[in-house]
Amino acid sequence: MATLFLRCCSVVLSGLLLSSCGGTRDGQESGEILANKKAQVQNINLVDTITLRRGVFRSQLISNGKLRAQQKSDLQFSAAGPVVWLAGGNGTEVSAGAVIARVDEREAKIRLEQARQTMRKADIDLQDALLGFGYDAADSAQVPSQTMQIAKLRSGYDEAKTGLESARLAAENCVLTAPFGGRIANLKTKLHENPKGDFFCSVINDRSFDVEFNVLESELANMRVGQQVSVSTFVEPSKRYAGRITSINPTVDDQGQIMVTAYVPNPGGLIDGMNVKVYVESRVEGQLVVPKSAVLVRDGHSVLFRYDSQTGKAMWTYVRIEMSNSDSHAVEANKDRGAELNVGDAVIVSGNLNLADGSDVEIRPAE
Q: For residue 122, which phi and psi values (nearest 5 degrees)?
């Protein structure tokens, strides 16, 4: 009886052990399946694609330029003396003909009055000289030209007239006026100081600018008068100012460059002499256009990845970059390396940094 009981216990224990071992193997197999599935999910790359089409490419040329006010005049005093009045400092707005500054004009006014007195005396002496020739000064039109010339010479009339004009000009030179509306610039002389050298200040009209920039001889075909350009400053590189080309210099310099000038209105924020970047765009039809993010450089060659919908894989494709702008490339298949690129191909534009030829990919679902 005891022996029978021991045999039964042994059978039950063996069954429990076998059940325990079988459960462990099933658990290990389930873990391996989950790990494999997880690895498969991790190996699938989520990507975004575009359908390749031929269209218009915005060819973009970028050059450095410098802004120059369309109207700018450097002014100077011809008269000597300290400055006794100023309209304001640098940046002050002035209208055309407005007085900018005055120097001490007391001596000039005295000389002008002396010249006027000399002129009055010469006028009386001219009348006396004409009476001596038997002519009335009131009827000067009847006086022969030779007689009038002799009378003016004897009376000192011409000399007095020249002296008066010189004195009037000297008095006017004590006052500096704006030749056009604009702003005062480059003023260094202060009130009660004598102007230094031959320069006093500039007046600039900064409501509009000329921007001069150079293009290569090979780029001239894309330039034309009237073509639209845009300008950005180094202070606000994201802000663009619209303009247009006004002239193209018909000569090439020693560096193979041609100077182009464009007109740019100033809505505010642009300053004379400011360094800028100039963007010149032109439309080129019939190009295969892709975002810059689609093209990678591998082993010194430009490549992109096409998506094969049948296999779900990325296909490595060598390309040539024909043209570039700030956000896109115009590309063609690099036939020298046996590449093929056709209208309608699905081109991967994101998620492509770690792809290899034949990588499994999945198109990211639209949000």
A: -65, -35
pTM listed for this prediction: 0.58
The CATH homologous superfamily to which domain 61-68+207-285 belongs is: Efflux pump adaptor protein, beta barrel domain (2.40.30.170)
CA distances from 184 to 125, 179, 274 (A): 48, 11, 17
Determine contact, residues 159/169, Cβ cutoff 8 Å: no
Mean pLDDT by 10 residues, the chain (367 residues): 42 41 47 45 81 91 93 90 93 94 91 94 90 80 87 92 91 91 93 86 94 90 90 93 95 93 94 94 90 94 95 95 89 95 96 94 86
CA-to-CA distance for 269 and 235, rounded, in angstroms?
Answer: 10
Q: In terms of residues, how long is the chain?
A: 367
Domain ranges of the chain: 46-56+286-363, 61-68+207-285, 77-101+177-199, 106-173
Instruction: Report the C-alpha gap between 311 and 44 in whole angstroms.
Output: 12
| Full DSSP string of 323-344 | EE-SSEEEEEE-GGGT----TT
Give the integer Cα–Cα distance in Å for 185 and 270.
14
Q: State the CB neighbour count (10 A cutoff) for residue 131.
A: 12
**CATH assignment, 46-56+286-363:** 2.40.420.20
Q: Please check whether the two domains, 46-56+286-363 and 61-68+207-285, share a CATH topology.
A: no
* Pair type for strands 275-291 and 54-75: antiparallel
- 184 close to 272: Cβ distance less than 8 angstroms: no
